[in-house]
Design goal:
There is one protein chain. This protein has two domains: 67 residues, no CATH class; 156 residues, 2-Layer Sandwich (60s Ribosomal Protein L30, Chain: A). Helices cover 42% and strands 12% of the residues. The protein is built from eight helices and five strands. Strands 1-2-5-3-4 form a five-stranded mixed β-sheet. β3, α7 and β4 form a beta-alpha-beta unit. The chain starts with 15 loop residues before the first helix and ends in a 17-residue tail after the last strand.
Length: 260
């Protein structure tokens, strides 16, 4: 009988190279694709840029769809000039705020000594620009008549505000200590009377009365802790706010009929 040679199958330890080669090939293909899609066709980009610029500038183009020849040495910048419509109301508000800031700066200069002492604060908020004056500078304790020493400073403020046109709200604020006198049964009356005193001085110095509103808020809007003397002194104040929005015309609408 013919002998057959039986060769023992040897274990191949290099089979992992096949999988590794496949992985490297796929990874190479992946990066080639990523590189390809990341390249911008500069010629088509410039054609698109020129077309958009012509469209937004109302430049007549080629209706046949012929390609625009662009000189590579003088590329067309990719700029789209949109026609921005200016909202008349927004522009009016911007001008109003600018006038308010100028008036606030003039008031800061007129009351510079009090600002330096911390008796006057000027800040801008959501409603507009507010000039906050400590009540100790304006009134004697428990009184609503302006102190003679404060009339000069407040008259300077009125002269700054008189030529302007924005609405003005004068708020009177007190601390939480109760008051019960024949003239002022509570802090509500005291705060309202103090705001009215400032409004009357403004009117006497040329501020249009139709622009003014006097409001008494008593101790309901504290800015400091009423538990300390310093906090109570801080809360006793008069706030003059230059409103940033002009009041719109109110439209009366009938209420819906009540249903039984």
């Amino acid at each position: 009988m013919r002998r057959r040679r039986h060769l023992d199958d040897e274990e191949n330890h290099d089979r992992w190279l096949v999988s590794y080669a496949d992985f490297i090939t796929l990874l190479f293909a992946f990066f080639v694709v990523m590189y390809a899609i990341s390249q911008v066709n500069e010629g088509k980009y410039r054609i698109l840029s020129d077309s958009l610029n012509s469209a937004f500038r109302n430049v007549p183009g080629d209706s046949a769809g012929a390609q625009v020849v662009v000189n590579p040495a003088n590329p067309v910048p990719f700029q789209i000039q949109a026609h921005r419509q200016i909202n008349p109301k927004s522009e009016e508000q911007r001008k109003l705020k600018e006038k308010m800031r100028i008036a606030a700066n003039d008031i800061r200069q007129a009351l510079a000594p009090l600002v330096k002492e911390g008796q006057v604060r000027i800040f801008e908020g959501a409603r507009g620009i507010t000039v906050e004056i400590n009540a100790n500078v304006l009134f004697t304790p428990g009184e609503a008549r302006l102190d003679p020493s404060a009339i000069g400073a407040m008259s300077q403020v009125a002269k700054v505000l008189a030529p302007t046109a924005f609405p003005l709200t004068v708020e009177g604020h007190t601390d939480s200590l109760p008051i019960a006198t024949a003239q002022f049964p509570s802090n509500w009356e005291l705060s309202g009377a103090r705001a009215s005193s400032v409004v009357r001085l403004f009117i006497d110095n040329g501020v249009d009365a139709r622009r003014l509103t006097a409001t008494g808020l008593a101790d309901q809007r504290p800015v400091a802790d009423n538990a300390t003397p310093e906090g109570r002194s801080r809360n006793r104040r008069v706030a003059i706010t230059m409103e940033s929005q002009t009041p719109d015309t109110q439209v009366e609408a009938p209420l819906p009929a009540a249903t039984n």
